[in-house]
Amino acid sequence: MTAVRVRGLDVVRGSTHALRSVSLEVPSGRVTGLLGPSGSGKTTLLRAIVGVQVVRGGTVEVLGLPAGSPPLRSRVGYVTQAPSVYGDLAARENLAYFARILRVPGERVERALELVDLSRSSRRPVRELSGGEQARVSLAVALLGEPELLVLDEPTVGLDPVLRRDLWSAFHRLAAEGATLLVSSHVMDEAERCDSLVLMREGRVVAAGEPEALLARTRAENLNDAFLVLVEGA
Question: Helix, strand, or coil here: 45?
Answer without folding.
Answer: helix
